[in-house]
Amino acid sequence: QFSDTGSRKEHVKITSDSKPGFLERLSETSGGMLMGLVTFLLSFYLLFTNEGRALRTAKSLDEGLSLVIPLDSIHSVSQQNEGRLVHLAGALSTSKPLFDPSYGLSIQAVKLKRHVEMYQWVEYEDSTEYEENGEIKKETKYSYNTEWKSEVVNSRNFDREIGHKNPSAMAVESFTAVSANVQVGSFVLSKGLVDKIDNFKQLSLSNLEDPHADVTRGGDYFYHSENPRRPEVGDLRVSFFYAGLSGDDPHLGSADKVTVIARQRGDQLVPYHTKSGDVLQILYPGDLSVEEVFQKEHESNTMKTWALRAAGWLSMFVGISLMTRIFYTLVDWFPLVRDLVNIGLKAFAVCVATSLSLLTISIGWLFYRPLWALLIGLLSVVPIVVAKSRVPPKKQQ
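RESULT FIELD:
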């Protein structure tokens, strides 16, 4: 394995601006309020549609579990299962191996990925702001290091391009080859199922020779470099990855097994449309039972639902914070008052965002599970009641 020997360079740049006046800060706050309003409204859409999606997906999975038929054999196509949701598991197979003639490489797999990296300058930026003599000063430290990157780094955007210039393109491009025909037994997988085969593993190049005179193999990389141990900016290294081994290989082992749930159409496995309006075409690596597959799908749906709920709540919190920022700006001349107002605004944003998020979720459930919707709706009042109970009695009056 060749080592990377990048040299790091640094320089510091200081810029100064006059301290913004009250009207300028107020103008900036007004722009932030508009962005906050947009973010606030989008959070309602995200939360509401997420609940409908989650419930629809759960209902579709329950429907699929009640209808799915395990196949007795994957090597024969039964007309009795035409149009029905079926479950099968078996080894992947493809009709032809995938090639990369530029490097003399071939493999019997569903996907073959060529991954190209170029040795380039990369800029890092670390900024600190401080006030001095009535001005806002910004001290920025720029550092440059040479690294392997899979995307072209545009050095024109660097603070100092001289001495850190990168090539504008790569001489060799990355690409992914996909087998045109992928089967499990006698059944052909749809494009959607093939797309789910993405558990890429790096391909060992130890059994290959150097493909060209200007290419050197080192470890699991092909290097386009005069001296791979001391690469220069613009040098390339190429690695390969595969997914879905579809034939027995003396170095890689047996073909990968997958479990599929989809609709049978002739000898093809295609998407199944449920009554709830969802689509079922499921593929997992390994040999799984029907119950195991649907349990994994329910767990995936739950994780996605909570992730989007958290994103919706965060969007609402940010939106409320931006819309109420004007109160902070009005008192920012008084440090003590400013800090108290800042804490109060954050607490207000947390309480309101939590209550409105719960209320939106309950409305989303209203069409599917009314009782749960009512309980969540009542729960949405709790943050406001708790916040109000902490206010001193005199202030309440």
